[in-house]
Amino acid sequence: MLDAITGAPAFVRNGRMDLLAANKLGYALYSQMFKDPVRPANHSRFIFLDPRAREFYPDWNLAANNNVALLRTESGRNPYDKGLADLVGELSMRSEEFRVRWAAHNVRRHYSGNKQFHHPVVGDLELLFEALQLAEDPGLTLTVYPAEPGSTSEESLRLLASWAATEQVEEVATMNSGDR
After folding, report:
1. Cβ–Cβ under 8 Å, residues 63 and 71
2. SS3 115
3. pLDDT tens across 69-80, in order?
4. Are 28 and 163 in contact (CB under 8 A)?
5. Which conformational region is residue 150 in: left (phi greater than 0), alpha (psi within -120 to 50 degrees), or beta?
6. Burial 89-121 (b: 16+ CB within 10 A, else e)
7. Distance from C-alpha of 128 to C-alpha of 141, rounded to nearest angstrom
8. For residues 29 and 4, what is the distance between their CA atoms, to the nearest angstrom?
9. Residue 32 has what DSSP assignment?
């Protein structure tokens, strides 16, 4: 289903904010988040532990507040989720900003709206988003980020798609040259 969505970034995440799968534009949009090969890409770790997040999210405070509120919602829904408890513990130990937000006990459902990004390759993007719970896969959410038709963000998404195709070609070429 993700590969069928070609004009907008799309990804599937779990309640711990792990990005489990994405389409090509989703991987391109969140390319910085996928740099760590050791563990799955995770919105929360990126926001609170990666300094690049402050530039990627022009309104970093809003992104941070929303992220913690979503984690709080998930902890209420699944209070015995060890993976979530481990993530909260890790973030609490490593980020004062996370700790303060977690202590506020804010809960929020965040299913549609606008988001702003500053991508290192294509610059500023203002995208709509819609998050849908997957009925056949409880606990998983599909999120799609279309641009307003005719906007500069729509043009930037086309540029991002072109960049992603080039990056993929370079990765395949690099992998194949290592096989020789």
Report:
1. no
2. strand
3. 999 999 998 999
4. yes
5. left
6. ebbeeebeebeebbeeeeeeeeeeeebebebee
7. 16
8. 17
9. G
Q: Alpha-carbon distance 52 to 57, whole Å?
A: 9
Could you read off the pLDDT of 13-46 as tens digits, one per residue? 999 999 999 999 999 999 999 887 667 899 999 9
Residue 118 tokens read as 């500053």
Task: Output the six-digit token pair for 50.
Answer: 């990666």
Longest dimension (CA), the chain: 56
pTM for the model: 0.88
Q: What are the residues whose beta carbons fall under 8 Å from the beta carbon of 107, sequence distance 6 or more? A: 69, 72, 73, 76
CB 45 within 8 A of CB 91: yes
Q: Could you give the CA distance from residue 145 to residue 82 in angstroms, rounded to a whole number?
A: 30
> Do the bridges between strand 112-119 and strand 10-13 make them parallel or antiparallel, or are there none, so unpaired?
unpaired
- Give pLDDT tens digits for 96-155: 999 999 999 877 666 789 999 999 999 999 999 999 999 889 889 999 999 999 999 999
- At 110, phi and psi to the nearest 5? -130, 85
Domain ranges of the chain: 2-178
Give Cβ neighbours of residue 1 (< 8 Å, ≥ 6 apart): 142
For the 2-178 domain, the top CATH level (class) is: alpha beta
